[in-house]
Amino acid sequence: MNAYTLLSLAAYFALMVGIGIYAWAKTRADSAGYLLAGRGLGPAVTALSAGASDMSGWLLLGLPGALFASGLVEAWIAIGLTIGALANWIVVAPRLREQTERLGDALTIPQFLANRFPETGTLLRVTSAVVIVGFFTVYTASGMVGGGKLFATAFAGSLPAAGLSDYMLGIFVTAGIVLLYTMIGGFLAVSLTDFVQGMIMMTALVVMPLVIWMNTDAASALAMVPQAGYLSLTQGATLVGVISAVTWGLGYFGQPHIIVRFMAIDRVENIPRARLIGMSWMVISLAGAIAVGLAGRAYAQARGLVVEDPETIFIILSELLFHPAVTGFLYAALLAAIMSTISAQLLVSSSSLTEDFYRLFLRRRASEREAVNISRLCVGLVAAAALVIAADPESEVLGLVANAWAGFGAAFGPLILLALTWNRMTGAGAVAGLVTGAGVVAGWIALGLNKAFLGGPGLYEIVPGFFAALLAIVVVSRLTARPESASAA
């Protein structure tokens, strides 16, 4: 490992910790300050924080790897995500910001649901918190897997690891830095680091494909790829496959670590500006990730390069094509994608454990200082559980992300959409939708229907889960009476 690369990474780590300390100095010492930054985020920080916490290591590992291996047909996922993110900004963002403050000034999604449906408030808080902590533990593990893969591929035994494999060293370093700035600075630290990390990620995804193209005759190399329709959006695609890819976009409505950013923006009037910034960042970053996968395949084809794990193509090219100092910056971009998502997920999980378990059942009169300290403790507990899951080096980043994304999208997506827009929805309907969505996704995965469906390729579990939850909410809400005291959406 070159000294320049290590210095670049050390500078990145120092910057993240420095931001955490700055946020600690600026954050109010209460739950609203630690968990939601006092609802004071500006539009640019809100936009890039939502984007960076959304994309995770999937953006630089999973998506380029899928394009590298299978071709342009994998871009349907990016198309679906773009449509879903835009709809999320338009439909959910302004309503959630307004209603969470108006209905009891909720700090968490479970709190908002309890305030919106007081007749089943406690049950909703507990059930939704269980779903959040359960799926986020898996989701957080996917980010740690990305950190492990980076160290295992890039460092290859060049670092002293005290008996640890490079993979496990990467997991511990990634988790350790995230824990440090998240526990110190809370939501403000997470949001500010997300902003910086988002800029680093976008820069890397613009620079890398341009450099690859300058170092190889990409058009000729891609023409040599022994795979029919490699550059076609439809070649080899099936209806079920396209539906599975595009419906990733449905997941946006139910991702707590993303939509909580909408709750923290300073004013509803700033949401259109934040939407423009966020969608611009997303389109550029997704296009860059697609280009990395395709250009990386061209480079490998032209040079006879053997890539055993397609999800490591970004890491391999970072080392082959750039000066060691720039390589360190690119590694930092990958860590930025990973760490921005991990920190957001850890904070949302800890907020649910604190506000929806500890304060609800154990210490209703807990002081603000005590609640903040418990939140910090819960950050560590969730991280420890995720470490156990991530310890398997055979884990696939895209697979873990897909399962967790579907779980949240099906459990919370229809619930949040209808809670914000349908006045006739009842608390019983909310509980039915939450349980149905999570249950159908878990059952679909357990039965292997996401891998093989009706004799063909699997159908992504978010499809049955989302629509089953939607149906459950509507049917149960129609069959149950809405209390006259219930708050209108």
UniProtKB/TrEMBL annotation:
<feature type="transmembrane region" description="Helical">
    <location>
        <begin position="123"/>
        <end position="147"/>
    </location>
</feature>
<comment type="similarity">
    <text>Belongs to the sodium:solute symporter (SSF) (TC 2.A.21) family.</text>
</comment>
<dbReference type="InterPro" id="IPR001734">
    <property type="entry name" value="Na/solute_symporter"/>
</dbReference>
<dbReference type="Pfam" id="PF00474">
    <property type="entry name" value="SSF"/>
</dbReference>
<keyword id="KW-1003">Cell membrane</keyword>
<feature type="transmembrane region" description="Helical">
    <location>
        <begin position="167"/>
        <end position="188"/>
    </location>
</feature>
<keyword id="KW-0769">Symport</keyword>
<dbReference type="GO" id="GO:0005298">
    <property type="term" value="F:proline:sodium symporter activity"/>
</dbReference>
<feature type="transmembrane region" description="Helical">
    <location>
        <begin position="397"/>
        <end position="420"/>
    </location>
</feature>
<feature type="transmembrane region" description="Helical">
    <location>
        <begin position="195"/>
        <end position="213"/>
    </location>
</feature>
<dbReference type="InterPro" id="IPR011851">
    <property type="entry name" value="Na/Pro_symporter"/>
</dbReference>
<keyword id="KW-0406">Ion transport</keyword>
<keyword id="KW-0997">Cell inner membrane</keyword>
<dbReference type="GO" id="GO:0015193">
    <property type="term" value="F:L-proline transmembrane transporter activity"/>
</dbReference>
<keyword id="KW-0813">Transport</keyword>
<dbReference type="InterPro" id="IPR038377">
    <property type="entry name" value="Na/Glc_symporter_sf"/>
</dbReference>
<keyword id="KW-0915">Sodium</keyword>
<keyword id="KW-1133">Transmembrane helix</keyword>
<keyword id="KW-0739">Sodium transport</keyword>
<dbReference type="GO" id="GO:0015824">
    <property type="term" value="P:proline transport"/>
</dbReference>
<feature type="transmembrane region" description="Helical">
    <location>
        <begin position="371"/>
        <end position="391"/>
    </location>
</feature>
<feature type="transmembrane region" description="Helical">
    <location>
        <begin position="32"/>
        <end position="52"/>
    </location>
</feature>
<comment type="function">
    <text>Catalyzes the sodium-dependent uptake of extracellular L-proline.</text>
</comment>
<feature type="transmembrane region" description="Helical">
    <location>
        <begin position="459"/>
        <end position="481"/>
    </location>
</feature>
<feature type="transmembrane region" description="Helical">
    <location>
        <begin position="427"/>
        <end position="447"/>
    </location>
</feature>
<feature type="transmembrane region" description="Helical">
    <location>
        <begin position="233"/>
        <end position="253"/>
    </location>
</feature>
<feature type="transmembrane region" description="Helical">
    <location>
        <begin position="274"/>
        <end position="295"/>
    </location>
</feature>
<keyword id="KW-0812">Transmembrane</keyword>
<feature type="transmembrane region" description="Helical">
    <location>
        <begin position="72"/>
        <end position="92"/>
    </location>
</feature>
<dbReference type="InterPro" id="IPR018212">
    <property type="entry name" value="Na/solute_symporter_CS"/>
</dbReference>
<feature type="transmembrane region" description="Helical">
    <location>
        <begin position="6"/>
        <end position="25"/>
    </location>
</feature>
<keyword id="KW-0029">Amino-acid transport</keyword>
<keyword id="KW-0472">Membrane</keyword>
<dbReference type="GO" id="GO:0005886">
    <property type="term" value="C:plasma membrane"/>
</dbReference>
<protein>
    <recommendedName>
        <fullName>Sodium/proline symporter</fullName>
    </recommendedName>
</protein>
<dbReference type="GO" id="GO:0031402">
    <property type="term" value="F:sodium ion binding"/>
</dbReference>
<dbReference type="InterPro" id="IPR050277">
    <property type="entry name" value="Sodium:Solute_Symporter"/>
</dbReference>
